[in-house]
Amino acid sequence: MKIVRSRYMPPLRRHAAINIFGVFFVHPEVQVTDRLINHEKIHTAQMRELGYLPFYLIYLIEWILRLFMKSNAYMSIGFEREAYRHEGDPFYLKRRKHYAWVKYMRKKKVKKHKHNKKKHRH
Asked: From the CB of residue 106, how many other CB atoms can be counted at a distance below 10 Å?
């Protein structure tokens, strides 16, 4: 993956980096960590399996649809959920199955916690 430092990309500075067709653009002030590189490598794997244009089209459509939901649209995108979930695992891409992002597009399941009933002494 080619890393390019640019004052102009990402354009709005809301994000540390942006991956355009497998080229990783990062602002000069942003520290490039292994975690950040891995996150962008996961996106590159997603792009390659789908094709670059279909990736961006699906990304955009999902982002627009999620704008109308209660949660953060960007953080709810399936591609981002997969990348954030596994960015800290340097071996993830070696065992990742093709189209792994599909399971992250489904609605998040709320984990049910068993409430332990504690007896209160009075």
From this structure: 9
List pLDDT tens digits, range 77-89: 999 999 999 999 9
Domain count, the chain: 1
**Is 9 domain-assigned?**
no
Give per-residue pLDDT as tens, 42-69.
999 999 999 999 999 999 999 999 998 8
Is the pTM for the entire model greater than 0.85? no
Amino acid at residue number 71: S
**H helix intervals, 8-51:** 34-50
SS3 of residue 45 by DSSP: helix
- Count of alpha carbons within 13 Å of 95, Cβ hemisphere only? 5
Within a domain: 119: no
Beta-bridge mates of residue 17: 26
Which residues does residue 3 pair with via DSSP β-bridges, in sequence order?
24
From the DSSP assignment, how many helices (H) and strands (E) are in the chain? 6, 3
Phi, psi of 26 (to 5 degrees): -140, 140
